[in-house]
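ok posting inputs for the magnesium ion job
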Amino acid sequence: MAEVAKLTLSVMTADVGGFVGHVSSHPEVLDTAKERLYHAREKGAIVDYHILRCGDDLELVMAHRKGCDNIEIHELAWNVFMACREVAKELKLHEPGQCFDGQDFKGTLKNAGPGVAEIEFVERESEPVVILMANKAASGVWNMPLYRIFADPFNTPGLFTSPSMLGGFSLKVRDVDNGGELMVSLPQDIYHLLALVNSVHRFAILCEAYRNSDGEIAAVISSAMVHREGDKAGLRSEPAAIFRCHGGLPAVGEVMEPFAFPHLVQGCMMGAHMGPLMPVPFYEANPSRFDGPARVIGAGFQITNGRLVGPHDMFDDPGFDAARSKANSVTDYMRRHGPFQPGRAVQSDAALSGALEKFRERFKKSS
Ligand code: MG
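and the output
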């Protein structure tokens, strides 16, 4: 029997320049990306594509048959981002392409600045996919939702009603600080996993999910670039996540449900403050209040022979009105903390070097 051709979904994200400030994206930038990927599809380099954006971050969604980490696909995305950055520079948009590490493509987008989420699979009879993208949020933004989707039966009743999900899921945990990766099998490793993901100083990130009964891949989140300030590691990326749904994987509704609770994430105002993650429809992904609150959009697709049928705007649903309202009242509450924690996130000495330098001489040892 001939081997069934696998499909790869590649979601590449980058901040190529904000309009206005860090709030949104300019239509000419989005048009540039669409035009480039249209030609790539016409030439047969990719099967299909879609352009999304959340806040000032641009997201390229590409369906193709070349597998994950493919140099041609990564170079295509790099060239699209560079073309968009040129448009952003001409328009003098805000900080065009600040996330790119250098000017030259080095064979992969990973660790070059953009976020990369790729998933390869054999297309099922019905292949519903949800792609989530956040703005003004650090990469750990998906930790709690991933836990709830793949480990919490209060969120995902499929964990105890679907025969193929009864065996649980395995999650890959990335220890960003030390560069290691670890697979944990749920439910048996739940308590150890919760201990790890709470360790904010080591930035443990859940990054892939597999069904235990047959190893089928269910979700991936985008890679994060690590930058260091002194002895502290930080994350720099525009986090995205891809979920395959139904057919023995969590249903679309189970993937969406965690976002009815606008959990606190780090990211607004220079990435230095804590605030709620607000689920919004596409047209409301413009965080202008205090560079926040952080936003998440959801794009739903039915995949048909590699074609991306969609997107459906997943948070365009009054079912999320209460989460949006709560996110606004939580923002009021967190902002009242001003420069005090936890309104302001824990920052390294390097980030405070200006103030520390001025007062260094005046610090005296207490007796
Ligand atoms: Mg950005």
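notes: The chain has a mean pLDDT of 91. The radius of gyration is 21 Å.
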